[in-house]
Amino acid sequence: MVERTELSKLGKVAILKHLTKGVKCKHETSGLGFAEDAATINTQPELNTLVSQKLFLEGIHFDLVYTPLKHLGYKLVVAAVSDIYAMNGEPRQLLLNVGVSSRFSLEDLEDLYDGVYTAADFYHLDLIKTDVTSSLTGLSLSMTAMGTSLEGTKTLRSGAKPTDLICVTGDLGSAYMGLQLLEREKRVFAGVKGDFTPALEGREYIIERQLRPRVPVSVLSALQKQGVVPSSMISISDGLASELKYLAEASGVGVRVYEDRLPIDYETAAMAEEFGLNVTTVALNGGDDYELLFTIPLGQMDQVKDIEGLRIIGHITEPSLGACLVARDGTELELVAQGWTASK
Amino acid sequence: MVERTELSKLGKVAILKHLTKGVKCKHETSGLGFAEDAATINTQPELNTLVSQKLFLEGIHFDLVYTPLKHLGYKLVVAAVSDIYAMNGEPRQLLLNVGVSSRFSLEDLEDLYDGVYTAADFYHLDLIKTDVTSSLTGLSLSMTAMGTSLEGTKTLRSGAKPTDLICVTGDLGSAYMGLQLLEREKRVFAGVKGDFTPALEGREYIIERQLRPRVPVSVLSALQKQGVVPSSMISISDGLASELKYLAEASGVGVRVYEDRLPIDYETAAMAEEFGLNVTTVALNGGDDYELLFTIPLGQMDQVKDIEGLRIIGHITEPSLGACLVARDGTELELVAQGWTASK
Questions:
Q1: Run of H or E residues at B280
Q2: Which residues in chain A land under pLDDT 50?
């Protein structure tokens, strides 16, 4: 039988001590604040501090029917640090706040923190402050990520210039198709009596993309090695189309991307066909990929074209040309970003 | 009729632009990140960065039946910066994440942000990054506060030494009694047909303490003026007894406080009597006061004894003496902190 320790049997202090036992700092600048009102980050001249924040709410950002808590903790870290990497910074510290109802046990929290610590080790981060509070309904997770950038190497959304090349890392739409698949199997499961094995075989990649995304750090390292600093950059969390529009607006430019250049994995394409979805729409609007979208000056094409996991998908234009997708048949379509709905 | 703009009619970008329109930085070090993946804090040598985080969930931390959204925004800021002040630091930047369901309109968000901006002006803070996301049920608020402390002037929970004087600011238990009153009127209201006027007259102080707490900055300024740096400090958010125990444990000392020294407002005492509650229990365990608990060396008593809003309530002892309350009749009682329950 799985052990279950009721949170109500422990004081908050005991819960937090248990979850942060043996944590050691990886960065000299990290001042653990587990036992203090605030955490500290020590002075480091020449560096700017970058800070980002993510709020993950049950039923909106994750479904615990198919999301193991460990994966959820891992993904939350990736989502938060992705924004620091997108500024060309190096993430270093994390703060985590968990709102939890009596539905969850100490062992559940252990799984969640296990995922957080695993990701923190992978990305070389210190969790410097954490808190657990009560929640009436679901699980609420808030993560703050802090990082540094050298003065002058920070990359903003506003730096793209006409003729710059538009690049993306990895492939697009796979996390979204993984989500569709998991949602379908959940619906099937709900109607099944007795044993149920979800039909996920041969779809491991898109499921991993949904449940355990990664930040494309190898591409960032390769760029650095080549001495290339992106002129603008943004994390792809809401879908490529949205992010292209953010970037175009922030930089006051137009964008032109080519449908046949969009990086799409085989599993994504196969799954989209099975669901009767247009794969280009999936690649443009599927969220949760946590890949990076960035621009580089045209003159640096040779330095980037052989970098693995990097694809040039178009270029920056004059603002009057708008945000445009060139379809496979040469037709030019205006890029439309999906709207935000409060109920989604 | 009150205007109501559905959030679903606006894109997320439009919502955020609307809510951050015209915001200007108060600190040179603040780099607004409204339009970027992360916010920036510029280098400042000799200073440490302090960071704290608060998660406020509807139904747990606030009840919108009697909490105006503007007050909620204000209180969230106070809760977050209170932790920075408790490290003897100066808060400077805020990041806010809001999870909101379709129950809320743009005007509701305006009220919430209005409260945040009002508090930000009062405490001289910059909101440098904010995000709005969907929520399935209630309102979820996450705030990160950042601040600075001069190298060497940071106050930890662990610095208290035997014979140090234990001080608190303001008065205790008033926010808790305000909450009890508001809860009672809510229950009465639920059973009333037709017009209803809550019976709050003569109870304005305790209601204000619940709905619009303040950080005792004047006491901190007075201490600074007197050249007194507290040897340890903690924000009183969970109740004095809990905080005394945190402080005692972190410093490896005992505490001895006197019942007749606990600062209690007249309204708090009257209300406690009306509710049949022991006012000492209320002062020891009532949360949400956001006052400060701190210790100073015995030799500095003369410098602090005339500071308005500061009360010496006891002293630090050897660890073997434990955490003790000396009752009015001279009896010594062990201090017990209320436990944390996941459903509360």
A1: helix B279-285
A2: 339-344
